[in-house]
Amino acid sequence: MKKLLTFFTLATFALTSCSSDDVGPQGPPGPPGPPGEDGLVGIVFDIEGDFTEDNNYSLEAFYEDFTDEDVFETDVVHVYLLTGNDGEAEGEPVDIWSPLPQTRYVDGGGSMQYNYDYTYFSTYIYLDGDVDVSTLNATYTDNQVFRIAILPATFASDNNIDVANYDAVMSALKVNEREVPTVKIKQ
């Protein structure tokens, strides 16, 4: 009994002798960090390619081919399909970009879809649908242009941006349309 009383006394003393409210003296200031870039760092690039039987009706873009920036598992990738243009502004065509997935209804009553998957090292764009994609018209498979935007994980939540709105994303990233690199994906 005496040992048990001693144990409880020591335990009570140990648990009440320190509190998390005790703050020690402040240490010396650390060295200044390196200067950061102003604004949000996002990566934007275009790819162009053909969906063929040889590439299993898919295109894959590896980020290391387009940028030296690190892409993290927490980053978010959005892909937009160039669906046409709407006149000109300042002598340049005004492109129409539609967010993926995009569904198209084809002759014969079926549908096909441009869709994508991504990892922190590549984006994989593919055709899917309830039709045999090998029978699709070249309009759906040849010379397709996609814009890939890699956004920091906190982009949408911190900036309250509608990431489905292409113009809002490009504006927030301060992307100059004329400076977006385009690469033809080899088959």
Break the fold down into its secondary structure elements and pairings.
Blueprint: H1 2-17, E1 43-49, E2 58-62, E3 76-89, E4 92-99, E5 102-105, E6 111-118, E7 122-129, H2 138-141, E8 144-151, H3 155-159, H4 166-173, E9 182-184
Parallel strand pairs: 1-9
Antiparallel strand pairs: 1-8, 2-7, 3-4, 3-8, 5-6, 6-7
Q: State the distance separating the first and last CA atoms.
A: 83 Å
- The helicity comes to 10-25%
Give start-end ranges of low-pLDDT stretches.
none
Strand content: 25-35%
Across the major sheet, the strand order is: 4-3-8-1-9
Number of helices: 4
Shape type? elongated
User: Could you state the order of secondary-structure elements as H and E?
Assistant: HEEEEEEEHEHHE
How many domains? The number is 1
**What is the oligomeric state here?**
single chain
How many individual β-strands? 9
Q: Summarize the main sheet.
A: 5 strands, mixed
Mean pLDDT: 82
Radius of gyration: 27 Å
Structural class: alpha+beta
Describe the structure.
The chain has helices at 2-17, 138-141, 155-159, 166-173; strands at 43-49, 58-62, 76-89, 92-99, 102-105, 111-118, 122-129, 144-151, 182-184. The strands form 2 sheets. It has a 5-stranded mixed sheet with strand order 4-3-8-1-9, with no helix packed on it. Strands 2-7-6-5 form a 4-stranded antiparallel sheet, with no helix packed on it. It has 4 helices and 9 strands. The chain has one domain. With 187 residues, it is α+β, with helices and mostly antiparallel strands. The chain is 18% helix and 35% strand.
